[in-house]
Amino acid sequence: QVQLVESGGGLVQPGGSLRLSCAASGFAVSSYGLRWYRQTPGKERELVAVISTGGSTNYADSVQGRFTISRNNAKNTVYLQMNSLKPEDTAVYLCNVWIREFNYWGQGTQVTVSS
Fold it and tell me: In angstroms, rounded to a whole number, what is the distance separating the alpha carbons of residues 18 and 33?
């Protein structure tokens, strides 16, 4: 059973940092590309970061230089380190993986950036 469980969200002030985790089960994160998306009411879902099976990464322009995606294969977990947070980063953050013809999503974790 493929599952993705996000955690680590919360309320932070502008300029602060937060580290999100995506714990995977039912598959090995080392064998698939993993993605972080974010969703805000009234806005389209945005692809934030991607890590490939080879470990290469890509980021949305809006988070480039501030966010870092990584994985720990032993823990079967993907992370999103978020620094220099801005109010516009406020969203529900979700991890995602394509396995064969199926698209799997976690439940999401809320990140709120506000003073």
Answer: 22
Distance CA 81, CA 110 (A): 14
Separation between Cα atoms, residue 105 and residue 39, nearest integer Å = 13
- H or E element, residue 82: strand 77-82
Average pLDDT over every residue of 102-106: 97
What does each C-alpha distance from 44 to 41, 53, 75 come to in angstroms?
Answer: 8, 27, 31
pLDDT at 58: 98
Question: 72 CB contacts (<8 Å, ≥6 apart)?
Answer: 79
Cα–chain center distance at 31:
17
In this prediction, residues 24-35 reach a mean pLDDT of 98
